[in-house]
Amino acid sequence: MFSLDVIECELGKMKDESKTIVEEDENKLTALEDDYQKMTSNVAMMIKKAKDKLDHLHQRFQTGLDVTYRRHRESLHERLRTNRIFQANIENTNQLMRVAKEKNPDVDTFIVTEQSKTQLLRHVRRLQQMTGEKHNTFELKMGYDDVLEKVINVMTTVGRLEVSSSLSSSSHDSLTSIRQIIDTLQATSSVTSFSESTSSSDMLSDVGHVAVPSSSVAPRIDVWTGSLSLVKSVHKGSIGGSMTPWLTGGVFIEGEGLLVINFQNKQLLLFDYSYEYIRHYDVDNSPIDITRGFKPNELLMTQMGRSVIRCTFGDGVLTTVDRIRSTQQCWGIDILGDKILLGTEGSVGILTSDLKQVAASIPKRGHNTSVAASPNGLFYHRDEDVIVCPSLDGKEVFRHMCKGIKEPRGIVVDQDGNVYVCGMESGDIHLISHDGSKDRILLPRMSGITRPYAILHHPTRQELIVTSRQENVIFEVYKFCDQ
Asked: Which of the residues 65, 187, 231, 324 has the least number of beta carbons within 10 Å of its own beta carbon?
């Protein structure tokens, strides 16, 4: 049996080993913070050098452009002055001929005519001497350097962040020593029944898993009294592409991030949960809207050419499963129960999960139609500037006209059944209750977007993602906060 003195000695050893581990972790934390500060400084320095270089090249180019422009402008001015003088001389000669004709003496007319011919020849020779074959068309064109083209259209990151991790040898040795001490104490009973007073399995567990206090869950904000605060603006320069992006829909994918449709560039864009751009996926035709499917990792996507695509997305890989042709061009898409909702220009179709049988078709007015399913078994769509709420059997529950809204496009529903709508032409965001009994304007105008198009709601956070119709800011993120 162990005496208390022996146990105390062993605990002393454990204390020394644990101290070694703590000191090691403190040193590693300091080193990590130093790396962070150093990398932050280095990246900022590299970006500044790049900017300074571009500014210098810009200044050089602008100087050359100014010289070239002034030279050709002066050439055109000189040519224009000469032609105006020639025009005036022709007019004066013509006027002289008219005066001579009115007097009518044949001899005077002959003399004036001969003199006019001589003057005209002199004017023409002077014109030819002054202008000759001098050009009067100067078209300025820019041939961008290949490197600059790549920076603008291809480059998506300033560099790749690589992280290597390992357990230091000293910490590993200390953990091994602590386990050996615990095994020794556990193997032999003590006077005070050490195994009863302190569970060795608990100690082993504590060695392997440091307890981290769980962060308290932030209370949910009442969307009817709270306000929206801008979290992030994402600009078109952060994702590249040959044309200004037009993000028309998106979906959150668990463990992957936010997958957004880039209609204009025929792409799907992947962002992480902090809304940082990761990569893009090219598709064969312009995608329009996207939603989760009926199976894990399954997605349904509408596309130009009257197509509905069934695909899967997992581990960063997008795979097309099949393609279904539609009789009409489909825009919005969502699922409700075992049915698929498809929005077209003239109706909302309710289809079976295999997209082969139409269960119902609800006529509507207006243009491109977004559809949004609700947890309460209803769904929402636009009918011109009115928001309509029907059930799956086609029965209309209510119609709601948001004050001041023009051209409602994006529609989304949160976990509580609240409906969010963005007005593309009015540039605002509206909130409608699940039963249509009340509404409010959440945002009369946005920070960097004037024409909001699509709207998404984060599945767990009280955040709204609003896209623009081809503006410098491609989407903005807003979160609810107390007034």
From this structure: 187
